[in-house]
Design goal:
Blueprint lengths: L1 E5 L4 H12 L3 E6 L2 H9 L3 E4 L5 H9 L3 E4 L6 H11 L5 E5 L7 E2 L9 E2 L11 H12 L4 E7 L1 E3 L11 H12 L2 E4 L5 E6 H14 L5 E4 L3 E3 H11 L6 E4 L1 H8 L1 H8 L1 E2 L2 E2 L1 H7 L8 H7 L5
Parallel strand pairs: 1-2, 1-4, 2-3, 4-5, 5-8, 7-16, 8-12, 9-11, 10-14
Antiparallel strand pairs: 6-15, 11-13
Helix pairs in contact: 1-7, 3-4, 4-5, 6-8, 8-12, 9-10
Length: 298
């Protein structure tokens, strides 16, 4: 198949591209600069020059592909609308990337007990309302196969131009700078998580098997931020010691939005449909193992 990936130079999109190339598919990727285009070519990806605001370029590339994958910005409505409009009536596939923070609960680092699967009704936090509207637009689009995958906290080394995730490297960088691993509040807030290798497998399965309108969480267990920080502390030779910080201190490090909506929140999901409908069977290292004995330790 011919597959167009918006975000092919990123962590998720680049890893998905690598998996699809190994299967023998032809992959095109959006490139905002000549430097990115050259780098994509070196990875076997044909560049499509344009940006997320370039509706014409997105529409043209989507129409020319059997499958389009959006993995650049879950909150960019214009890009998603351009692709959905281009694919209307074609019967072709658009797989859009969302995120499990759509059910997130800001909690200043404290535990919230609510757990969600794909069938659980929920009200998104204000910061994620627009994202859910985009998800629903993709899933409800007529004349095409719209699919949404919502990854939880992703970890592990990627296989594209950008090999790095966000949250775990942030925590490691802060622990190195401060000499101690730090979490917000008690750090008992919990996030489901998924290894990048298992996530790419889910994308491939969704392309092959998912029905129109499908929605899938991606997770293989969960950990508290405190547990992740303890593992980082052990990996860095800090003896497992951690330290609490306020939400204001976290915002100074990462920004107010990420501190509240990610690092200090809960996002506890279960990938029930991913396993049942697609027979997805995640097999990669757990988050704690990857921190202590995997790519982060290396």
């Amino acid at each position: 198949m011919k597959i167009f990936i918006v975000g092919a130079s990123g962590y998720i999109g680049g890893s998905v591209a690598a998996a699809l190339l190994r299967q023998g598919h032809a992959v095109n990727g959006l490139a905002r600069s000549s430097k990115t285009a050259e780098a994509l070519q070196q990875h076997g990806i044909a560049p499509v020059h344009g940006a997320l605001d370039d509706a014409a370029a997105l529409a043209s590339a989507a129409k020319d592909a059997d499958v389009t994958i959006g993995a650049a910005n879950a909150d960019h409505r214009g890009a998603a609308e351009a692709i959905v409009k281009a694919l209307a009536g074609t019967g072709r596939t658009y797989l859009h990337t969302s995120g499990s923070s759509i059910v997130g609960t800001p909690a200043d680092g404290e535990l919230v007990p609510a757990v969600f699967d794909e069938d659980t009704k929920f009200t998104p936090p204000p910061a994620r309302k627009a994202r859910v509207e985009i998800d629903n637009m993709v899933r409800g689009a007529s004349g095409m196969r719209g699919i949404v995958i919502a990854p939880s906290l992703i970890y592990g080394r990627g296989h594209g131009l950008n090999p790095n995730s966000i949250q775990v490297p942030w925590l490691i960088a802060l622990a190195k700078k401060a000499g101690v691993a730090k979490h917000i509040g008690s750090g008992e807030n919990r996030w489901a998580n998924v290894h990048i290798d298992d996530l790419t497998t889910l994308y491939v399965l969704a392309i092959e098997k998912a029905p129109a309108g499908a929605f899938y969480f991606a997770e293989n267990g969960e950990n508290s931020m405190r547990e992740a920080c303890q593992a980082i502390s052990r990996m860095l030779g800090q003896g497992g010691r951690t330290q609490s910080m306020t939400i204001e201190e976290a915002a100074a490090e990462w920004g107010e939005g990420p501190a509240n909506d990610t690092m200090g929140s809960n996002s506890r999901v279960r990938a029930k449909r991913s396993r049942a409908e697609l027979n997805w069977q995640p097999k990669a290292r757990s988050l704690i193992e990857e921190i202590e004995r995997g790519c982060y330790a290396e």
